[in-house]
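User: Small ask, check this?
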Amino acid sequence: MDSQTETQTHAGDLDGFPVAAKSLLSERRLHTLKQGDMFGVFDQTGDILYGDGIADGLYFHDTRYLSGLSMSLQGTRPILLSSTVRENNVMLSVDLTNTDIDGPEGQRMNHDLLHVRRSRFLWNRVCYERVEIRNFDVEPRTALLDIRFLADFADLFEARGSTRPRRGTMRAPEIDDAEVKLSYDGLDGRRRTTQLRFWPPPAELTAQHAAFRFELPPGRRVLIHYEIECDPTERHETQPNRRFLRGAVEARRALRLSSSRAAAIATSNEIFNEAIRRCICDIYMLLTDKKTGPYPYAGVPWYSTAFGRDALITAMLTLWLDPEIARGVLAYLARHQAQTEDPVADAEPGKILHEVRHGEMAELGEVPFRHYYGSIDSTPLFVMLAGQYLERTGDVALMTTIWPNIERAVEWIDRYGDRDGDGFVEYGRRNKDGLINQGWKDSFDSIFHADGTLAEGPIALCEVQAYVYAARRAAATIGRRLGRTAYADRQDHLADTLRVAFNARFWIEELGTFALALDGQKKPCRVRSSNAGHILLTDIATPDRVPRLVAGLMHRSSFSGWGIRTIPEGEARYNPMAYHNGSVWPHDNAMIGLGLARHGYRDEAERLFRGMFDAAFHTDLRRLPELFCGFTRNRAEGPVRYPVACSPQAWAAATLPALVQSILGLSFDPAAVSVHFQRPRLPDFLEQMTLYNLEVGGDKVTVRLVRVEDEVAINVVQRTQSIQVQITN
């Protein structure tokens, strides 16, 4: 199929709502900014291109409030010098200059005489921009700047390629000397408005462009400020130039304040320091403050909203770093737990959210994602995270608050999750427009048999059974802390029963791994997969089977050199360019890495750590993307990019921090107020590592780890009086 018309099924997508492969995010090297419920996708010059298959834009609550933005200098598109999003993710900076320009009466302006710097950030539903033009010529120059703009108010799913039979109505624009309002009345009864304000007032302002003219003596500069606000609620008396400076300070301060909760990591390797700083900055950029606390949105551009599974896994991977993220995730998902049966939303009492959407198509039911629950693993992951959070923090008060939600989640597992009463949790969509596959690999072709035929449901995934096992153990632990002894004993008994049944039904002796899934006829999908690696996060596998499982995951057919493939080479549907059938996902490897460390496989965890760091070394901004292709690693080449991978992505950003935990054997004991390192390792590219402000029960400690041949020495640099550090070899 021609690449211009081919579509790829994407996570969270339905067959009818694909991400177009012609929207090549990796090829165009787009810049992204995100703050709160607003995000922007811009090209290298800072413009927003508009056209078929292009999803650039300024988005708010799943609607594109600005679909086109272009800037011309002297009537032509300026030349790009450089552009970058600064390390803290607050500001996009772009440097441009003029082309050769022939003026009237034979006058000519040579290139590189006018310098333009664009500085842009998002804050509180507003996109702020400052444009600075400086004349480096020895002659005075007339600077002509034209800013063109367009607002189509497309739903995010429209921007991704969906078509709609009907749309709402564009209202007549409202224009005055320095302000334009563009509005759209949606079919959902909501009016959406984009307001643009300029300072100084343009020489000409219409519904499509703002034109400026400045006389610039040699060496002089001029500043233009403008702002784009989504759904303005009040009229601002201060001018955009003053609001730009104040907003920039507030945006930096807010990000610095939230990220200051996290433990900090510094090493002897400056490139690794760049990568880990990018991870932390991305995590905190993607956090959105809810009434229930911080919540990590899944990723930009397609998943900048609340997802259940993504947030739960991100919280797990960052739990050692900042438990407040997990607390916010648990509180938000508890509040949005399903209360009733709703087949359209794939909802059943006690089930945990898959995703929330706020756009017009979701409000009208044109897509089923307004409050959608089509995820088989979010519910056990919710209980599993609650247990991990209690183990990390000792926060019994939160457990008391969300205990009814934990009970309802476990009841959902018993009543709705196990559809046929065989002891395993299965999925099958109740809405014909819902997701076909409801695990984290939710492409339509991701669950299949050894001959490549697609499995028919209801489907019981191997990793979901492990999550359920861990959820029952967690419910038992929490229950005992809250005095529910009988309840806890029952959950332990059910976990033991599940363990026996799982090992009997899922283990494939000739493959040395667990089946990818059981189909609706209870036939095992005899396929090797990374899914089986998630089993290592728990103790559901019998000890005699763990070595063979690990060996298979690290075999060259599975481990590409960068990471473990979703599906190893040799399987029927293996394709290193497929979304879920041969690609490499950082978060997938992070979870497997934690499982490897849990079972004592530090060498293997270190190989994953090395592969992921090397992948970050080769990517823009040292930022691990959502996924990359699963081709075997070649010397002196980076990983092959996946064309529509989201970047930044929350659980990808959490990968390197999680793998740091895995190689250090890092854990916490809130009762003893202590930090534990079990057989810590440092790879050969790290001579030393300092962890600042590891927190337990309000106490903090800073430690330095130094590699001495094959050993690691740990020194306490600073600590409060109560906290202890323990090392186990």
